[in-house]
Structure formats: C-alpha cells, structure tokens
C-alpha cells in the first residue's frame, strides 16, 4: 500500500512539473487545480459504480446458488421415488408381452390395409404398365413399375420381419407379383433398344434419351438404398440390385463395336481397294459419331458420367480391336501399307482423332497405340518380304520387256536432247518412286529401310542387266545382220546407265536423310561403270570388225602402191560416230578418245607386223610421207568428232615412226630412234627391232648399237599416263637376243 502511495505521489509530482515548466504557467495554477479536482471526482464516481455493480452481481449469484441447492435436493428426492417405483413395476412390464405382440400385429395389419387397394389393383396396374411400355411412354411406365415393386417389397419385408423362415408366404407373394419382374425386363429391353440407337435418337428425339438416363439413375438410387437396408436387416427384394447403369455401358460398348465391325461393305474379290474403303468409312463413322457425342449426347447424360471421354475410349478400343483383326489377315503389300499409314498417321491426324472440333475435349497423346509395337514390326517385316518378292518380279518383267525392244527393227526413242534411250529406267524408278512415296507416308525410318531395299535390288538388277548386255553382244556376233539396230540399242543401254545414276541420286536426295555413301551405292556405281565400259567396248569392237580388212591392208605393198584403206577407215569411223553422238556425256568424249587410241594402236600394230620392208630410200620416203598424211587425216577426223588433249600425242606416234622411216642418213638413225623413245617411254626393244626391220637398211652393227644404248638408257615407263606401245605385240622373228648381241659387242671390243 505504501509503495502504491509513493508511486502515486511520484506520478503527481511529474504531472505538476510538466504543467509548470514556464513562468507564464504560474498564473494558471488555480485553473489546473480545478481541472484536476474534476478529474478526481469523475474517477471516484466510476470506481464507486464499478464496485457497486460487482457487489450486486455477487448478491445475485449467491441467491441463485441457494435456489439451485434447493432444486438439487428436490430432484434427489424424486429420483429416490422413481427408483422405488421402477423396482415395483418390473414384474408388471413382463406381463405386458402380449400387449407388445398385439401392437406389432396391429402395425402389420395397418400396413396390409394400406396396401390392400394396391394389392387388389396389381393385375390392372400390370396391364397399364405393359401398354405404356409398348407405347414407349417410358417414364410413366417406370413410375407404375416402381409402385408395383414398392408394394411387393413392402409386403415381403413385413413378412421377413414377422417370420424370416416362413418361405411359403414369401413364395405366395412372389407368385402373386411374378408379372412385375417381366415388366422390369420388358422395360429394360426398351431402354437398351433406345441406347443402341442413341446416335439417331439424340438427333431426332433427345428427350427420349434423357428419359432413359433418368430411369437408369432412379434405379441406381433404389439399388443403393436396398443394398444399405440389406446391411442393416439382411433383407433384399428379388431382382436387386438391377445394376442398370453397368448394363447401359455394356450396351453402349456393344453398340460401338457393332458399328465399327459393320464398316466393311465389300470384299477383296469385289473391290481391290476394299481395305482403303473400309478404313475411310471407319474414319468417317468415328469422327461423325464423336462430334455428335460432344455436341448433343454429352448434354443428355449427367456431368459425372464424363460422357465424351467414355465414348472416346469406347471408339478407340473398338477401332483397336478391328485393326488387330485386319492385321492378322492375309494382307497384300499395298494393303499393309494402307493399314500402317492409317494406323500410324491418319488415326491421330486432324482428319480423325485430332480433329479441331473434338481435340479440345481430349488429349490424343494419352491414347494407347492402336496396334502393339510387335504387331507393327511384324507388318513391316511382312511388307518388306512381299515387297522384295514383288519388286524382283517387276524388275525381271521390265528387263524382259526391254530385251524384246532390243531386237526391234526400229531405232529406240530419243529424249528431248536427241540421246537414244529405252523406257527401262523410267519404268524401274517409277516403281521405286511409288513405293517410296507410300513408305514416306508411314514412317521416316521405314522410308529409309525401303530405300535401302530398293538400292539393294537395284544392284542385283544391274548385275543381271550387265549379263544380258553381254548376251546381246554375243548373239549379235553370231549373225551381225541381226538385230538391225544393234548399235542404236547398245547406245541406249549406255545412256540408260547415266539415267540410272541420275535417278538413284535423285531418290537419295529426296528420300534419304543421310548424304553419306554406302556399300550399296559403291556397288551400284561400280556395276554401272562396268556396263558403260563394256558397252562402249562392244561398240568399238563393232567398228573395228568393219575395219578389220582395211587395217590389214596398212603397211603392205598394196598400201604403198596407192591403197585407200585409211580413207575407208575414216569414212567408216565417221559414219559410226554419227550414231555415237547419241551417247550422253561424258561417255561420248570417252568413246572418241578410245576410238582414236585404238585406230592409232591398230595402225602401229600394222607397222610392227613387218608386212613390208622398204627396199630403198625412195620407198622409205614415199611410205613415210603416206604415214604422215594418214596421221593428219586421223587428226582432222577426230578433232572434228570431239577434240581432245590426246589427239596430237596419239597421232604424233605415227608421225614419229614415219620420221624414223623417212631419215635418209643411216648414221643419224640412232638420234631419231632416241627422239622416238624419249617421246614414248613405253616403247620396248622388240618395237625398235621391228621398226629397223621395216626400214630395211640398218646394218647389224647399227642395230646392236641402238638396241644396246636403248637397253642401258631405258627409263621407267611406270609414270606414263597414256601408254601406246604397251599392248602392241611384235611377231617373233629369228634374231639374236639382247644378251647375245651384248656379248658379241663385248667380244669384238676385246679383240
């Protein structure tokens, strides 16, 4: 208390000090005193009021506690009296069992009286309900059916409560209401019929479908109620639970499956495009039906049914089952492609499940594959096997057709640039293109696989093509009069190889994701080059068969006295090259170079055969001038045909040999031969011997010196890019060998 007083005094001193901080505030001391007095009086009044209020509350609480104590005493006395009365009435309650049984019986009789009217009217209600079902008044029929079932169920429940073991009474009730179950079955049939035609009904009379759903929902509620009562009492009416909701989904599933199975309108025997037609009908049915479900049917079902997704799954499963059945049928190659294209591409595209109108309702990426990967792989393998067999047959047939054209009496067709060709490349690559286009629609990897298969088959085909070309040449050599257009068709074969190359490169650019060359590419390139090389060789062989007699006249006495062999050779070559100009580049240029080379080689071969030996300088001069003139003729001809870098060098070999013959001073022969050897390093010893033999004036010592020097100074000819003398052989003559001549020269020097 003292501490509280001290705190109050300290607080008062602090307040007074705060009021009197300035001198002018001393004049207001009286005013401050009155204000503080008023505040004190106000606080004291509130304090007194609060204390008075608390005292009144305490007084009231004490009064109530006193009253409660009195009430508790009264209740205690009453409980004592009740306990006495209860003990006295136990025997009396046991004596009221008969009254209790009477009450139960009264309750049952009261229920029976209430249902008597319905019980007696059961046959009439059954008949009315049957008529309503036949008239498709389904809601009213269901209302009547519920009344009948309620009457039956109530009676049976009361009987069950009264005596659950009394089966005779239960059977009596069941027999009396036996038509009710039949009505329920008839109504269910009507409901399933409406659901089976739901796609049509929802467009013509959606209220009918709504009525069916309402009836099924009511039955579901009754089922739940009856099941709950069974848990409590053990009793459940006959026919419950009906589970019409589950039956409804089963009916819808069967309906969807039946609709998908009914898409096949024709068989393979009636229409080769039967599968394409079937898949298109299926696509249209599924898309149209799902759009109807989204826009119309979903509004007829309760939201918790998730109607669209449920139908989406039903259609997906039905389509998957149907596609699996098709996959296990004996499908042809084009049918396998159609099925795989539809399954892998069309199904999830905007044309079907990914259609903009239904895409917002579902996620197509969550769909299970229509076909298991194993089945897809089996179809791919089956297609590859069938395609391999088919394309082998197609290529064989195309080649047989082309071979028949080779023996025609008319020239082959020419392209827009005038080059001969046949239809074989177009036919072959049209087949490849069609199959690759189809494969590209299915899958990128499958497209690559088909391309590799095409190239592999192409390589096999080209090997066969090469064999047929050789056979074609051999048949012609047996009778050079047949076929009449042998040269023109051989040119077409060569041009076809170029077309094959271009077409293969085009296919690879268009359908292959990889630009790297494969073993198959190298094999094809190698085979095509061999066909071209052999074809050009066959054509040149044909030319030189015609030139054979004229080439044999070269460097003979007849030639020296004035033969026209070279004129005939030039005219013949030019005539052939009028056709050879129909060969595509670069083969035409290669043909010209090879023809020139062969002409020169054959000419030099004629020299080396030593069919003539010049008798004097006059003959040597005349022969050399003729050779130079004929070399110029060859130059002029082949420059006219297709000028190349090798023309001068090749024809220069004839001129160089002519210079050896033309030389009048034998002492300079060594220098002339040395010049010849320096220009053409591939010349051999036997060639020098032959030239000296033809010249006819070289002494033994001169020959030995020239050949000895040649042997000592001979350079390697491994770097010669265009050898001329390499393949020219010299007929054997009885002359001393180089070793013998060297030994003889050594012995002579020693002497």
Write the layout of secondary structure elements.
Layout: H1 2-19, H2 29-94, H3 97-120, H4 122-134, H5 138-162, H6 167-176, H7 178-196, H8 198-204, H9 206-233, H10 244-261, H11 274-295, H12 307-327, H13 333-346, H14 356-359, H15 373-406, H16 424-442, H17 444-478, H18 486-511, H19 519-552, H20 557-560, H21 565-580, H22 587-608, H23 617-642, H24 646-662, H25 669-679, H26 685-695, H27 700-713, H28 738-750
Helix pairs in contact: 3-5, 4-5, 4-7, 5-6, 5-7, 7-10, 8-9, 10-12, 11-12, 13-15, 13-16, 15-16, 15-17, 16-17, 16-18, 17-18, 17-19, 18-19, 19-21, 19-22, 21-23, 22-23, 22-24, 23-24, 24-25, 25-27, 26-27, 27-28
GO cellular component, one term: exocyst
Subcellular location: Cell projection, Growth cone; Cytoplasm, Perinuclear region; Golgi apparatus; Midbody
GO molecular function: SNARE binding
Task: Please give a structural write-up.
With 751 residues, this protein is mainly alpha-helical. It folds into four domains: 215 residues, no CATH class; 109 residues, no CATH class; 159 residues, Tetracycline Repressor, domain 2, CATH 1.10.357; 161 residues, Tetracycline Repressor, domain 2 (Orthogonal Bundle). It is 76% helix and 0% strand. The longest helix has 66 residues. The C terminus is likely disordered.
Number of helices: 28
Number of strands: 0
Which stretches are low in confidence, meaning pLDDT under 50 for 5 or more residues running?
Answer: 733-751
Mean pLDDT: 85
Number of separate structural domains:
4
Per DSSP, what share of the residues sits in E-state strands of 2 or more residues?
Answer: under 5%
Order of helices and strands: HHHHHHHHHHHHHHHHHHHHHHHHHHHH
Instruction: Using the CA coordinates, give the radius of gyration.
Output: 60 Å
Q: What general outline do the C-alpha atoms trace?
A: elongated
Largest sheet: none
Distance from first to last alpha carbon: 168 Å
Structural class: mainly alpha
Please give the share of residues in helix. Answer: over 70%
